[in-house]
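Chapter summary example.
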Amino acid sequence: MMEYSWRREMLLFLGLSLLLCFSTSLLLAHAAATQITYDNGQLLINGEPRILISGSIHYPRSTAEMWPDLIQKAKEGGLDVIETYIFWDVHEPHRREYNFEGNVNFVKFFKIVQEAGLYGILRIGPYVCAEWNYGGLPMWLHNIPGIEFRTDNQAYKDEMQIFTTKIVDMAKQANLFAPQGGPIILAQIENEYGDVMGPYGEAGVRYMQWSAKMAESQNIGIPWIMCQQENAPQPMINTENGFYGKWDWKPNNPKSPKMWTENWIASFRSWGLPARHRAAEDVAYAVARFFQNGGVLQNYYMYHGGTNFGRTAGGPYIATTYDYDAPLDEYGILNQPKWGHLKQLHEAIKSAEKILAKLSSTHKDIQNNVTLTTFMNNSTRKSFCFLSNIDPKLDVNADLGKNGKYFLPAWSVSLLSDCNKEIYNTAKVSTQTYLKTNKPSNVDTQFNWEWKAEPLNDALNGMGSSTANKLLEQKATTVDASDYLWYMTSVNIDNSFGKKAILHVNTTGHVLHAYVNKKRIGSDWSSDGKGFVFEKPVTLKEGINHLSLLSATVGYKNYGSFYDMVPNGIVGGPVQLIGNGNVTKDLSSNEWSYKIGLNGEHEKFYDDKLSQNQIWSLEALPLKKPMTWYKTTFKAPSGSDPVVVDLLGMGKGHAWANGQGIGRFWPTMIAKAPQGTECSDTCDYRGQFHDTNCMPDCGLPSQRWYHVPRSFLNNGDNTLILFEEMGGNPTQINFKTVTVGKVCGNALEGSILELSCKGSKISDVEFATFGDHQGKCGSFKKGSSDAPDTLSVLLKACLGKVSCSINVSAATFGLSSSNSATTPKRLAVQAVC
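The structure predicted for these 833 residues follows.
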C-alpha cells in the first residue's frame, strides 16, 4: 500500500512536470513567434522596420556536414538571412516517391539557420532555373499526357500545387515559419517568370495569377514574393534580379518593400568557357547604390555556390563547379578580399539601420555624376549619408562644405556617419587577399589502378529494351535515368551502294559515339551544347550491317520560354548513309532498338558496395581507351582542409568517391573566350559589369579540380571510380588539399590592414611597399615612391604571428603626413603562411 502511494505520487509529480514543461514550451513558442509584415515600403519584423542582408546557400550543392560552418561564416560576414531554392527533382525523383534525407534535408538546413540566429527565405518555385538540371523540375513531369510547363495547364498546375503544398506542410510541421517561431520570413512562388512569360500569351498571365492565388491559399502567415514579375498580383511582392539594382525600379505597390532577390555576385562556369570574376569593389558599389536608393533587403546570388554533384548541373554544358566567385568559395573557404570587404560594408550599413529603415531620404547632385543621399531619422535627428560617384573613369574630390571634403574614386560610394565622417568606401579595399594553393596530399600518390571495359556486346548487336520505327527524343525516353541512350538499327547493303560510305547523323544531343558492325568509327560533340552534324567515313559489307549510336547529354536546358520542349538526342535525325554517287539511304524511319544507360550503370560499377560484379582487371592498364571504367583506392588526406582530386589527363565522363557522385568531368574541354570578347587576368572594377568582361584562365581546362567533400570519405580505404567516355590516362590523377598559401594586403592610407593566415603563422613577408605600387596580389611591383622602412615594419609586426594589424599611415612608416586631399598612398604586402 505504501509502495502504491509512492508510485501514485511519483506519477502525479511526473504528470504535473510534463504539463508544466508543455505549458512552458507553449509560452516559449508564443514568445518566439515573429510577425512579418510590410507597409509604406518598409519590411517590418514585429512592427519594427528592418534593413536586411541575405545570401544564397543551396543545401544540395554542399553537404549536411558543411552547413553549420557555411552558415556561421555567413553570419560572421554580416548576413541576417540565408536564402535557398527548393529543388523539386531531388525531392521527388519519381512521382510520389519522396526524398528529404541527408544532403537534401531542407528542414534540417533551416533549423541550422535558426540555431545560428539568422532568418531564412524559402524559394519554392518549384521551377528554380539555378543552372540546375531541367530547371529543378523532375523529368517524369515531361511524360505526363497533355502537360505543358509553366502555363495555364491543369496537369502541370495540379502537380505544382501538390509539391508546393508538400513543402509548405513539412515546413509547418517543423515550425519553420516565423509566426510559428521559425526562421523563415519570406517565401517565393515561381521564379523569374516575367522574363519568359510573353510567348505564353494570355495563358501565361492566367498561370501567373493562379500561382499567386495558390500560394496565398497555403496560409503560411508571411509575405510571398515573385521575382522579375512586374505585374505580380497583390499581395505578392515583386522583386528584382541582376548585377545591379536598377536606380529607377520600384515595386508595383507603394506599400511593398524594395527587395533585390538576386545580386549576381559573378556568374557560373560552363564547359569550354573561362571562369568569371567580379571584383569586390563592384559588388560593394552595387549593394551601396541599392541601399542608397531606398532598398530594404538584398540577397547575394550566390554567397556560397558549391558543387553540382552527380548529374545535377543544368545547361547544357554547365560545369560541375558552381563556385560563382562567391564570398565563400566552392569548398567553404573565405574568398578574400570579397568576403571581408563586404563584411565591412554590412557593418557600416547595419550601424545606421534604424536611420535607413525609416526610408526618409533626399538626393542632391553635388557635381556631375556625384550624388549625396541623406537619410534622416526625424525623431532622433540622426543622419546618415551615401556619397556616390557613378563616373566609370574619373576620381573626384567632393566638397560637402561644412561636412568636409572627400576623395571619391571613380565608380564608388562612400558611407558617411552623421553625414560628416567617412566610415566606408566601396573602392577602398583594406581587406586582405587570399592566394589559395592546392597542397600535395600526405598520402601515396602512386595508385594501383584496376579497370573494366564497358560491356558493349548487347548494344553493338542491337539488343535493346524497346523498339520504334522512328528516332525518339532522348529525355522522354530515358526520363533522365542516365546521360546515355543507345540508338540501334540494321541496314541491308548491296553491291550497287558500295562498301565505302559517309555516316551522316543530325543530332540535338551533345555528344555522339558511333559504331558500325561492332567497330567504333569515332566520336564528336557540339561546341556549345546546341546540337551538331556528325559525319564520318565508314566501311560497310554486303548484306546486313549493324549501326549503334550512343547519344550523350551534358545537362538538360534549364531556362527559357518552353525550355522543356527543346529536343535532345537524335530525335527526327536524319540518320543517313551516303554511298557511291551520293546515293543516300535514309535510316530515320527504320526499326530502331533502344537501350537506356550503360551496362556499368545498371550493374553499379560506380559503387563497390552495390555492384554485383566485383571482378576488375589488374592486367596492363589501357590508356586513352574509350568506354572504360577505372578504379583505385586511396587514403583520405589528413587534416580538415578541403579535398580535391586532379583529373587532368582524363577525357570526359563521370566520377564517384565511395559511390557518391562528385560530378561530370571534362578536362579536355579547354576554356576559350566567347566570340567578340577577350580573356584577361586584369580586372578593372570600374563601369558596368558583364559576365564577359573579366575572364581569367583562357587556354586552361574549364575544370581540372573536383571537390571531394570530407563527409564522402572514410578513415580507412576509399574508392575512386571513373567512367571514361572518350579516352583518358588515369595515371596522372592525384588528391590535394586546398589551403591558403599566401595573404596580401592592398590598403589605402587612413585604414587598418589586418593580415591572417587562417590559423597558421605568418612565416615570411615577401613584399611590402607604402607608396604608389603597381600590380596585384602575386605580382606586386614598387612604384615611383616608397617608404624605405616598410618591409622592416611589416616583419616586426607580423612575422611568426597568426594575425597582425597595421595602421596604414605615413607615421607608421616613418614619413611626414601626406596630403590625403589628393590621391592617398597605399600599403601593399605579400606574406607567406
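To summarize the output: The mean pLDDT is 93.
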